[in-house]
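Hi R.,

Here's the chain you asked about this morning:
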Amino acid sequence: MNDKAKTKASVLLIGDSISVQYGPYLQSSLKSAVNWVGFSEEARQSALTDLDKPQDLNCGDSSRSLGIITDMIQKTDGKIDLILCNCGLHDIKTDPKTGKIQTPLEDYQSNLKKIVDIAKEAHIPLIWMRTTLVNSTIHNSLCTGFHRFEKDLDAYNDAADSIMQEAGNTIIDLWQFTRQLGTDDELFCDHVHYEIWARQFQGAYLAGYVQSYMDNAATS
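And here is the predicted structure, written out as tokens:
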């Protein structure tokens, strides 16, 4: 970590509405070990008012996430010990009428490479979380404003895997962890978000990774 004398690590969580929902369980698991950069309960509650709209702690697509990371590094003068990052669900939003995807794959790849580069330039470790599940049948029957498709999710996850592996960043397979928790009918509470029990498991799972990273960083 940047300052091993600190009693708490400064962690920046960058994610979409999935992270807004599992966030409290992740944070409570690491309450004595982490200061969450840029977090406020007011901002979380505001994000919850419309989970499909990027706002406050819902960082949205890769372009918006890149902007937030850039701003937070500048505001903190790089005093962040770890960036825990995911974006993808908003990038694969597709217009039902035109079939146009919100962020073309090549733009998504470019944004992720910029995220990797800016974290590296600031000497801040970055852990990537793979984007969670999409069931096109469930999603597109409940959400008429925009659609999502498994094929796009898989392609964008694969692209992110390649970029993060090449950069040597740790990857947390939140997709696979969530997949093994149950069937889609059991997991989803709406078109793409999770039942409370699944959020609790996701938060605890991620907390284990963060704690392990901090333990290793403290002894290295």
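One quick note: The first strand starts at residue 9 and ends at 14.

Cheers,
M.
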